[in-house]
Amino acid sequence: MTGSGTALDDTALTDTGLAPTGETGRVLLLACGALAREILDLIKINKWDHMDLTCLPAIYHIQPEKIAPAVQDAVIKHRETYASIFVVYADCGTGGGLQKTCDDLGVEMVAGPHCYSFFEGNDRFAQIAEDEFTAFYLTDFLVRQFDAFIIKPMGLDRHPELRDMYFGNYEKLVYQAQTDDPALTEKAKACADRLGLDFERRFTGYGDLSAALTAL
Which of 13, 112, 122, 202 could bridge 33 with an S-S bond, Cβ 3.0-4.6 Å? Predict the structure, then answer.
C-alpha cells in the first residue's frame, strides 16, 4: 500500500501490499491502520510524492501489546529500502514500550500519548485532559468502525446490560472530526445515544499529525 490514494479497507490494513521502490530519498510512513485515510489525504493534499505508506492492522488499536513487536519487525523488513522510516503511532497504550523500540531502532515516531491527543493537538489536550476524564473519544475511523472496535469487542452486542459497567462513569462522547462529513456526525450522535452519553463534536482536522508529517 502506497501513498497514491489506493482504496482502503479499514478493518484489514497490513503492509503486505507495499512494493519497495529502491529509490534514494524516499520516506516510509509505518502507521496504524486506523490512520490510513488521514495520512493518504495529507499525502495527496501536500503532494508528498517522496512518501510511501504501509499500515499495521488497525485492530492493534485495541491490542496495544502487539504494536511494538510489529513495528520492530516492519522496520527491520523495510529499513534497507528507504532513506528513513517514520512511525505514525503515538504511545497508544504501550506504556513507553513503543518509544523504547523506536529509540533502539533509530527511528522517530509521533509525539503524544495517543491519537486523540495529537488530533486535538498535544498541548491543547494536555490542558483539557483533567477536565475531561469523563469523556469518551471517537475519531472518524472509530465512528465508521464503531461496532467492530467498540460494541463487539466489549460484548455489548450480546450483553447490552454491560453498558453501565463499561460506560457508567463517562458523561459525554466527544467526536473529534477529521473531516466535515454530516453523515459521520449523525452516526457519531447515534453512537453517543447508544452509549447513553451526551454528545459533543469538535472539528480537529488532522491536528499535530499534519505538523509531524510536514516536518519530514
Answer: 13
- The residue behind cell 501490499 is 17
Q: What is the DSSP string of 35-69?
A: GHHHHHHHHHHHT-TTEEEEEE-GGGGG-GGGHHH
- CA pair distance 210, 216, nearest whole angstrom: 10
**Per-residue model confidence (pLDDT) at position 87:** 98
Locate cell 516536518: which residue?
A: 215
Helices (H) and strands (E) in the chain, counts: 10, 7
**What stretches in the chain show pLDDT beneath 50?**
1-22
Beta-ladder partners of 53? 29
Nearest to 74 by CA among 57, 49, 59: 57
Closest CA to 14 of 51, 53, 49: 53
Distance CA 43, CA 81 (A): 20
CA–CA dist 71, 55 (Å, integer): 10
Q: For position 24, what pLDDT does the model report?
A: 60
102 near 109, Cβ under 8 Å?
yes
- Contact between residue 26 and residue 52 where contact means Cβ atoms under 8 Å apart: yes
What is residue 191's predicted lDDT score, i.e. its pLDDT?
98
Q: Which run of H or E residues covers position 175? A: strand 172-177
Residues 6+ apart with CB under 8 A from 163: 156, 195, 196
